[in-house]
Amino acid sequence: MQKMTKPMLKERLEEIHGEPVPKAWSKSQILLRLVELEGEEIMLTKKSTRSHLRQLEIDMNKAARKKEDLRHFVVQRLGTQLTFNETIEQLKVKGLSRMYEITDGHPTDLVGFGKHSDKTYQELALKEPTYLQWAIKTKNEGDTCQKLQRLAAWAETEEGMAWMQMGMEDSMAGYPAPKTPTKEKSYVKDSPLKSLKSSPAASSQSSAMEGMFMEMMNQVKTLTQEVQELKGEKARKTRSKRARVLRASGRRWKRPHLTSEPCRGAKG
Description:
This protein has helices at about 5-15, 25-40, 40-45, 50-65, 65-75, 90-100, 120-125, 130-140, 145-155, 160-170, 195-200, 205-250. The protein is mainly alpha-helical. Among the domains are: about 1-45; about 50-105; about 105-175, no CATH class.
């Protein structure tokens, strides 16, 4: 842990424990918080946290530079039976499959399948402990894929159970914090009564305000009708005045009427 860089410590605190790291924190402050969460044992850990599976993968990739070295590695180191007609890629696939069989699960191993394929066993136990419970149940029910069997076998170990228990406790404590539910919008959009209808404290005034609002609407309607009547009266007086002028001049006043032109293209 002491050889880990500040970004690595920051990532460990954020990804595994779900705590944001203040920008002003130094490496020592981040390390102190990790000690508070995981114990002082992490300060004394000098051995590599690389899993057995990961180490074998690295060794196999080194041996893959030459086909003969790779074949020797797969047969002698992993104990895999070959037909000796395999290509380099086929040797790698058989070797990797054998690694999943002979190695035990480790917290840093990747899940490698499903929607959580990019998570480590440890991250999955902390963030989705119920998924590991499902994996154990699925493994016990019948045939499953090799990677799921390995994941479930790790979850059943003492170490796996401890990480799952930690994840359960975090979930019960409210991590991550639940989202605040949004208030349901009123069906009356942009209405002056919206705040009154959604406020329990103003429920006693709601009916009174609604009555005032309806009265205002009636007044507006009445004023609209009066304006229309005034416009009609003005037009009537204009026609009467014109008729008097025509009579005084001796001409006959004819009521105007509308004439409609025939529709273009219509048949006669």
